[in-house]
TrEMBL record, chain A:
Pfam family of the protein (one): OrtA
Superkingdom of origin organism: Bacteria
Alphabetical list of InterPro entries matching this protein: OrtA
Name used for this protein in its record: 2-amino-4-ketopentanoate thiolase alpha subunit
Automatic annotation (TrEMBL), chain B:
Protein's name according to its UniProt entry: Cysteine synthase
Residue ranges of domain Tryptophan synthase beta chain-like PALP in the record: 57-364
UniProt entry keywords in alphabetical sequence: Pyridoxal phosphate
Pfam family, any one: PALP
Gene3D superfamilies, per the entry: 3.40.50.1100
NCBIfam families assigned to the protein according to its UniProt record, in alphabetical order: ornith_OrtB
Length: 101, 468
């Protein structure tokens, strides 16, 4: 198992509220699952992924949770072009009236 | 310290007092009323002072752009003599890319002046980035609590982008799964750190938005020789409508019609783990727009400074496919690549322009930045992954969570009227219900307060009360 070294920038996760601790007015599909939290910080001791770990956050708070990963990348993207929109500019310009030119 | 949900929520009022330096109890009157204007003036900043604070922090004085090509397109679809010019306030030109910098600017100025070590807020939107940006200028630390992912760990791309941007600006970001309890965690953070509570709904936040209304009036007078017929405002939590309308009034533009616009997400529950990733819009939608209008004090402060039914004269909805279409049109006709949620009001304005005369003009009061995750291409790709069908046809038949329908022709884009009277009646009912009151419990002050809350006479309030 990968050991992440003390001092690394890591992500941890913990359960903030178990299903039974969540407010009653939530929809059932939300209340059925725990409220999970993720945060990042500097790892305080060597630890393997999936095991308990302590980090110090950007604002100096001590946070405890399960070690998720070392510095996970952002993977969200722009997505592909939308074929339905190709040529939209020409299509809209073709509607213009002579009188408005 | 007992940190169970119930214990922390029970300490809310105390935590608010310390983190806002404001005792909301001082404004309470009657059985359900409070002194709204008194609360708005409590921190004592004038509009001129706020303009100065914002200038110091590079916020505001954004361009008012005339959208010549979108206007020509709307005009081509209008009856003869109709088709108002469409202008847009390019709020993406603010430091963090949205009008939210205005909201954050005054809170950060105040927090710095009062010696707070940092600021914190629970927000999954552009406000997080705005707060960090403004806090950095004021040498304050920032913690942002965001609702990002569902129980399967899948993040909404737009909110993942907000995490990235907040972290890029140096904030501590706490990401939660779906649920309104991010506000519970924020209370714990405020208690632990002693940071300032930079809620979106304080008088400081709303006063910061008033400058948009003021700038619109001034720019229109200077550049276009007069005031717009209407200002169209994307409506979610109510701050944008409230602040802009108040600013217009302060600039002597009382006759400009205030029109709110939201994306119609009817049928999707905002706190649902299942519906969370079926939405292609994370703000500017009816899921916030309707509940916040009819019960403003559901917000994270005891009395919300954003009270949109005091100001809204019309409220319209548009559908997701229409907003994506107009977002693309803004790019290809006007050369402006901007975020889709900020184009909600623009989509409504495109439809509404056809009602107004050619010699009139209307103003859309915001744009927002776009980028990975919050670009309309990213949202459409994510929608497809979640099984949403993307079609071209009549956008009126779109069903949120199932389909996104691009208009087959731009004349199918429509601003659908929401009758405000049922929302007004709902506010009155909620005001009583939330305090366990009966109509006979109310004083004259309460009746007048409710009339002000819904911008109607006491006759209207009495009519609703009689029907209860």
């Amino acid at each position: 198992m990968d050991i992440i070294r003390k001092g690394s920038w890591v992500q941890i996760e913990w359960i903030l509220l178990e299903p039974g601790e969540r407010p009653e007015h939530l929809p059932p599909e939300t209340r059925r699952v725990p409220l999970r939290v993720k945060a990042k910080g500097i790892l305080q001791e060597d630890a393997p992924v999936g095991e308990p770990a302590t980090v110090v956050s950007t604002c100096g708070r001590v946070l405890k949770g399960t070690l998720v990963a070392e510095n996970p990348p952002f993977t969200h993207s722009f997505g592909p072009q939308i074929p339905e929109f190709i040529g939209l500019g020409d299509a809209l310009r073709s509607l213009w009236r002579k009188s408005d030119e | 310290m007992n940190n169970t949900y119930e214990s922390v929520m029970a300490r809310k009022i105390e935590i608010m007092k310390k983190s806002l330096l404001m005792d909301f109890a001082q404004f309470e009157q009657g059985k359900l009323s409070f002194d709204y204007e008194g609360m708005m003036n409590q921190y004592g900043y004038t509009l001129d002072e706020i303009r100065k604070i914002q200038r110091e922090a590079h916020v505001g004085d954004t361009p008012l752009i005339e959208l010549h090509n979108l206007t020509r397109t709307a005009r081509a679809l209008s009856p003869k003599g109709k088709g108002a010019r469409i202008m847009i306030k390019d709020e993406a030109a603010n430091p963090s890319g949205s009008f939210k910098d205005r909201r954050a600017s005054v809170s950060c100025h105040f927090a710095q002046a009062k010696g707070f070590p940092g600021v914190a807020a629970a927000t999954s939107g552009n406000y997080g980035a705005a707060l960090v940006s403004q806090a950095n200028i004021r040498n304050l630390k920032t913690i942002i609590v965001q609702e990002v992912f569902d129980s399967l760990g899948r993040g909404q791309p737009e909110i993942v982008e907000k995490t990235r941007k907040c972290e890029a600006l140096g904030a501590e970001v706490i990401q939660t799964s779906v649920g309104p309890e991010l506000f519970y965690y924020l209370l714990r953070v405020l208690e632990e750190t002693g940071f300032f509570n930079a809620s979106l709904y304080t008088p400081l936040s709303i006063a910061g938005i008033e400058t948009i209304g003021w700038e619109i009036a001034e720019q229109c007078r200077k550049l276009h020789g007069g005031l717009p017929a209407a200002v169209v405002i994307t409506h979610a939590g109510g701050g944008n409508v409230t602040g802009t309308a108040r600013g217009l009034r302060k600039a002597g533009a009382e006759n400009v019609k205030i029109i709110g616009a939201s994306v119609n997400l009817e049928g999707l529950h905002m706190a649902s783990d299942r519906d969370f990733n079926l939405k292609s819009f994370t703000t500017g939608h009816t899921g916030f727009g309707v509940p916040f209008a009819t019960w403003p004090d559901r917000s994270d402060v005891p009395r919300n400074a954003a009270r949109p039914l005091r100001y809204l004269e019309r409220y319209v909805t548009v559908n997701q496919g229409e907003v994506f279409y107009i977002t693309e049109a803004l790019a290809v006709l006007e050369g402006l690549e901007r975020g889709p949620a900020g184009n909600t009001a623009l989509t409504a304005a495109f439809a509404l322009a056809r009602e107004f005369d050619e010699d009139q003009f209307i103003v859309v009061q915001e744009t927002e930045y776009t980028g990975a995750g919050k670009h309309h291409y990213a949202q459409l790709a994510f929608a497809k992954e979640n099984g949403i069908r993307i079609e071209t046809g009549d956008p009126a038949s779109e069903k949120a969570g199932e389909t996104i329908i691009f208009p087959s022709h731009p004349d199918r884009i429509c601003a659908r009227e929401v009758d405000l009277d049922p929302l007004r009646a709902s506010l009155i009912r909620n005001a009583l219900k939330n305090r366990g009151l009966r109509p006979s419990d109310l004083s004259k002050t309460d009746l007048q307060f409710l009339a002000d809350e819904v911008s109607r006479g006491t006759d209207f309030v009495s009519g609703v009360l009689n029907s209860l």
